[in-house]
C-alpha cells in the first residue's frame, strides 16, 4: 500500500459498509417475496421501498462527503463509481419487487429463486468486503467470487429466457416476466461492477 503523508477522511469506509448492509436487507426482502402471497408481497414492496430510500440517503451522504473532503482515502472517481454501483443494486432490487406487485404476478417462473439466491450471496460477500477497504486485505477472493456469481447469474438468466419463450406462456405474461428477470440480471451485473471497482481501487493502492 502506498505510504501517505497526509491524513485521510475515514468516514467513507463506514458509509460504504452501511450501504452494503442495506443491500443485504434488500436481498432478504427479495427472498421473502418468493414465499409470499399477493397481500404479503405488497407489504414487502413497502419495506423494500423504504430500504431503497435508505440506500439513496446513504449514497447522497457519500457524495456530500466527497464534495466537502479535501483528502479522500482513494481516488474521487473510484469513490463515486463505488457509491453509484452500490446504489444501482438497491434500485434494481426494488424495481424487481415493485414490478411483481404492479403486474400482479401470481407465480414467478422456476429459476427466479436461483437468481435471487445468487443476489443474496453476492450481497453477503459485498457486505463482508466493504470493511476491508480500510486495509485492502482479503479482497481478492471477494471479487473473484462475485465475478463467478455473475457468470452463474448469466446462465440462469439465459435458461429463464429460453423457458419464457418456449410457448408455455401467453405473450403478455412473457413481457411481464421477462422484464422482472431482466431487472434481476441487472442487479447481478451491478454487483460485478462493485467488485470490479473494488479491484481497481486495490490495484491502485497496492
TrEMBL record:
It comes from the Bacteria. Pfam families: PhoU_div. Belongs to the UPF0111 family. This is DUF47 domain-containing protein. It comes from Streptomyces dioscori.
Amino acid at each position: 500500500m502506498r505510504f501517505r503523508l497526509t491524513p485521510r477522511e475515514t468516514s467513507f469506509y463506514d458509509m460504504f459498509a452501511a450501504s452494503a448492509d442495506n443491500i443485504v436487507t434488500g436481498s432478504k426482502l427479495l427472498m421473502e417475496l418468493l414465499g409470499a402471497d399477493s397481500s404479503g408481497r405488497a407489504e414487502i414492496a413497502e419495506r423494500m421501498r423504504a430500504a431503497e430510500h435508505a440506500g439513496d440517503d446513504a449514497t447522497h451522504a457519500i457524495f456530500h462527503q466527497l464534495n466537502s473532503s479535501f483528502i479522500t482515502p482513494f481516488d474521487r472517481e473510484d469513490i463515486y463509481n463505488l457509491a453509484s454501483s452500490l446504489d444501482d443494486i438497491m434500485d434494481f432490487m426494488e424495481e424487481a419487487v415493485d414490478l411483481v406487485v404492479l403486474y400482479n404476478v401470481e407465480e414467478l417462473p422456476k429459476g427466479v429463486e436461483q437468481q435471487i439466491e445468487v443476489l443474496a450471496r453476492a450481497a453477503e460477500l459485498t457486505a463482508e468486503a466493504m470493511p476491508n477497504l480500510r486495509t485492502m486485505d482479503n479482497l481478492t477472493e471477494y471479487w473473484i467470487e462475485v465475478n463467478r456469481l455473475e457468470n452463474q447469474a448469466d446462465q440462469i438468466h439465459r435458461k429463464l429466457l429460453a423457458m419464457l419463450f418456449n410457448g408455455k406462456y401467453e405473450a403478455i405474461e412473457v413481457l411481464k416476466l421477462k422484464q422482472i428477470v431482466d431487472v434481476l440480471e441487472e442487479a447481478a451485473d451491478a454487483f460485478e461492477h462493485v467488485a470490479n471497482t473494488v479491484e481497481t481501487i486495490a490495484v491502485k493502492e497496492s
